[in-house]
Amino acid sequence: MATLTASNIAPGVLSSTPRLPKWVPWAILGGSAAVAAGILFLADSASIATIVSLTVVLYALSITILSRRIEGSRYATDRFATTLVVVAFGLALIPLVSLLGTVLAKGLSVVDFQFLNTNMVGVFGEMTEGGIYHAIWGTIMVTLTATIISVPIGILTAIYLVEYGRGPLARGVTFFVDVMTGIPSIVAGLFAFTLFTLLFGPAYRAGIMGAAALAVLMTPVVIRSVEEMLRLVPNELREASYALGVTKARTIFKVVLRTAIGGIVTGVMLAVARVIGETAPLLLTIGIAADANFNVFEGRMATLPVFAYRQYQQGGIGVDRAWGAALVLIVIVMLLNILARLVSKYFAPKLDR
Predict the structure, then answer these.
(1) 81 with 188, same domain?
(2) Which of 6, 37, 106, 307 has the highest CB neighbour number within 10 Å of its CB?
(3) Percent of the chain, pLDDT > 70?
């Protein structure tokens, strides 16, 4: 029996099925919106949400029926599935766009140079002075310290699980990593508070306490993301390195990690984004301060999440400061993700010849 390939299929067979013109889906969408708006206005129950919902239902039914009659069941199913995916994507965007819009609307009116360059020393009640300079640096210092703690542990643990881990120990490590992934943030804060209280006494407060709590939350995320990236590295690269007489350790650090560096950096930034907005563990461990503190080993420190929480709790002008702090926190996360993209692009292996 002859094998059916693209070269021996009669010309025109693959394209013999009639297709809808590209303008038809857009026309159906516009017609569905018009019909939905007319029906709901006549029923005196028109709103943006109801019009959009009825438009989606009418469009899905119309495009599926028309496609089935003209293009066949296969293309009709494809168009129906595409509609569902687009609708799901749109629903997922609604809370994101709403959140960003609210933060921008309420935060832009507060954020200026004075707000970014002053602290809360001497600011009381409804005074309009005061800013988040100390909270910005506190967030950076605490998060950076947590990253320094968690990233080496996470990468080395992932290397062990992928390259060396066999038997009960590896299964136990994997189990505990899965358990740590789901622990509440307040539990991490209680752990750090108890640990440093036992070591230095109940009066001790320092940024390292918050960094330790955040590191507990970051480490399992780093392990999981790095582990998946290392498993994606082809074994042929390892075998080629071994064939040249390179040791396993050097192969891991020079070949495997270098190949997966883009995914590793992305995973680390996901872990940073996971913890940079945490409030409960920082509120429990390092509290709040009115002035900037650059020593993570001594004294309380202010962070943007705790600052926003405390200011919103005070009410009045504090609510405006809270929205401004939230906007700056989002911008910091965005800048960190851009930096991660640049780092992964620069250090990724060049495949062009």
Answers:
(1) no
(2) 307
(3) 92
